[in-house]
Amino acid sequence: MKTVTIKLKKVPTLYLECESVTPDKFAGKSLEAIAALPCSEGKSNYKLGDWFEISGSAGATAAETKIDVYGPGTSKCKYFGAWMSAGEVVVNGTADMFTGSWMTGGKLHVKGDVRSFSGLQMKGGEMLVEGRAWNYLGAAYRGDWRGMQGGLIRVKGDAGSDLGTFMNGGTIIVEGNVDIHTGTHADGGTIIIKGKAHRRVGGQMVKGEIYVFKGCDVMMPGFKKVEEREIEVDGEKHVFNVFIGDLGERHSKSKGEVVYGHLYTLKE
Amino acid sequence: MTEIIIKNGHVFDAVTGHKGDVADVCMKDGKIVDKVSNSATVIDATGKSVMAGALDVHTHVAGPKVNLGRWYRPEDKFRLGERCSAKIDPKTKIEGGFSIPTVYKTGYEYARMGFAFLMEAAMPPLYSRHTHEEIRDTPIVDEAAMPVFGNNWFMFEYLKNGEIDNAAAYVAWMLRQTKGYGIKCVNPGGSEAWAWGLNCMTVNDPVPYFEITPKEIIAGLITTNEELHLPHSVHLHSNNLGNPGNFQTTLDSLKIAEDFKPNNNLGRKTVLHHTHIQFHSYGGTGWGDFESKSKEVMDYVNKTPQISIDSGSVTLDETTTMTADGPFEYHLGALNHLKWGNVDVELETSSGVVPYVYDPKVKVCDIQWAIGLEVPLFAADPMRTMITTDHPNAGPFTRYPRLYAWLMDKKYRDDLLNSFKYATKVIDATYLAEIDREINLYELSQMTRAGPAQVLGLSGSMGGLAPGMNANVAVYNINPDNMQKGIELENAFAKSAYFIKDGVKVVENGVVLDADPVVKKTYWVNAKVPENKQVMHDINEKFLKYYSVSLGNYEVIDHYAPHQEIIEV
């Protein structure tokens, strides 16, 4: 795997739209060609070379290309790794909105935080966030009814509200706590919260699984406890209270049986 | 203005009778002329096809429901993968959206495909100012809009009492106030009945409270239309749209036209235009035995010269449906559980917006797709049959090139038909597999140029290449001696080699050059009737009593339509 290192020359005033920073666009290109890729600040058009010092070399295909991103000011760059299908992107710092959104493959490693709308409608690949995530992680884009569909997101810190809304595949693991509306409208997929969740977990969910280790502040009234069971989650075994829901929703049938969403909370 | 000559192209034009023979097309000062001087700009069209600028007879590109669609479908701009704003060209404005594009994208994309004129098919009169503002901001293409009358309280009362003079005076007043083009009628009576939780499923269901039937409404509107000598016929979206077995209602609605004769001096030969007939040609009793009845409907259309139709072909995309047919949108929203928005526009009409996914894996969607292609393929008279997608209801207008390729290449459409998950069931329920016809370029020019121009009463200035007509000319990279097939044909239609609008070259090889020099015109009809005190009294009274705005807030002043082209009748 070959590495391209890009380093911001200065902190942008407005936000930089970095859709070009993916292995798919870098693969097979010379450094000059990479520097000529588009990059806009607000509504002004620039080239990637106007903002970044670019060194190293790109691989022949996306899978053989790794991009190392350095600051200062990566927190003002949007769309890192968005739509990427293979290869690797490492952001040494915090990344702004839409990081890793619409990803279909490859690895994205963010050493700081990711801001709102990251990992939106992701279809595959892995995203590792060492800091915390803001709102709408792995959710659906505004107005859409299809959230994350595949892949894995792991956040070491906390996450914000509306995590995994409209999710219908893939896995999100948050090692810290989350804010309200986790997994609303979920239609599949797995959400694992190692910390505690705020209100309205799993509202209007029709399928999928949500695990909360340190409890939900308030349970939604549409959930019903059915059993207690020992389950292995993320390599650890625990006894969970199993709830089905959201009973207020219209549920589909599979092989004659009604399919429900499942919410698991740790038995104290 | 400069002179332009397009040399050595294969010309397809029903007005001048060119059927692909090599000829030159000359333009001067925005009009087609016989010949030009030696200083004219020469465009070499050797091995290319030349046609007049196309007209879209039925599309939804401006107005409140289109804007609501943009408003509540922010995700629409991601529908083709990456953000559309990623391509930024300094000469054009940023384009966005897929099924409900921004006004800029609408104008540019239509120009890229060689379209010169669009008919916004449903304008709620109360929101006509907004509609005209959006029309004003759509670059390049000329536009007109039709106010809706099929559920209008004034019309109901006048038609119920047989007061055709009053109805005509009201329509004339409305066209003047809203700068409208003709009479649109959506689900006659049904949208009003919906306010009582009902609908009109056949032409004989009475409208509650008004005690008038859809049949009487349609007949009354046609009488009014002919009384006023309007350029376009009544533009009908009949009852019972989208339901299995509705072809009977469609035939009943079409039969109403038999008793009427066209009465105008703008070249229109029809009295009734039935729009998006694909949605109205369904057989069966439910979604299980759902089948095509396009042959039955088209047989009737073919033998009735008073009727014109457009197809409303499904393109198998994810799109956003929007119509003044409120009950239908409620029904669709309940069916797909995605999002639903409806509104009742005071005394005038209702409307709704619902996203819809035409999924090729779903049998019903595939049958709808097949019917949409059968309609133009069964057409005996291409001058009365137009190709539309009822943008965005059956698919976005940007798919017209794909639609043309399906109609012009049997193998291309059959390959898709056979690739469906339920291919055998779809073939059983439709006629498409048996049809060998391939539309040729001349027929296409009739269906998209001369035909719509005649039906809209614009055949004097549009849809042809005769001297004196507007200089709207599209040149495509299609060589009739060695026709491309399938996807290549599609690409050739999507990116015209040249498009000249009013004598200004705006598109070259699919790239919009500069839209600024083009004067974009708004067409409307100024229908004159003797002053009618009764109607003015009724209007004043109803506005005071029921409307949320006063009469003074209603009129579309010239500010909203800076370049008007007024048709006096």
TrEMBL record, chain A:
Its EC number is 1.2.7.12. Pathway: One-carbon metabolism; methanogenesis from CO(2); 5,10-methenyl-5,6,7,8-tetrahydromethanopterin from CO(2): step 1/3. It comes from the Archaea. GO terms for molecular function: formylmethanofuran dehydrogenase activity; transition metal ion binding. Transmembrane segments: none annotated. SUPFAM superfamilies: Alpha subunit of glutamate synthase, C-terminal domain. GO terms for biological process: methanogenesis. Gene3D superfamilies: Glutamate synthase, alpha subunit, C-terminal domain. It catalyses: N-formylmethanofuran + 2 oxidized [2Fe-2S]-[ferredoxin] + H2O = methanofuran + 2 reduced [2Fe-2S]-[ferredoxin] + CO2 + H(+). NCBIfam families: one_C_dehyd_C. This is formylmethanofuran dehydrogenase.
From TrEMBL, chain B:
Its EC number is 3.5.1.-. It is an enzyme of class 3 (hydrolase). The gene is fhcA_1. InterPro entries: Amidohydro_3, Formylmethanofuran_DH_asu, Metal-dep_hydrolase_composite, Metal_Hydrolase, Metallo-dep_Hydrolases_sf. The keyword Hydrolase applies. NCBIfam families: one_C_dehyd_A. One of its GO terms (molecular function) is hydrolase activity, acting on carbon-nitrogen (but not peptide) bonds. PANTHER family: COLLAPSIN RESPONSE MEDIATOR PROTEIN, HYDRANTOINASE/DIHYDROPYRIMIDINASE FAMILY MEMBER. Residues 42-485 form the Amidohydrolase domain. Keywords: Hydrolase. This is Formyltransferase/hydrolase complex Fhc subunit A. The lineage of its organism: Archaea, Methanobacteriati, Methanobacteriota, Stenosarchaea group, Methanomicrobia. Pfam families: Amidohydro_3.
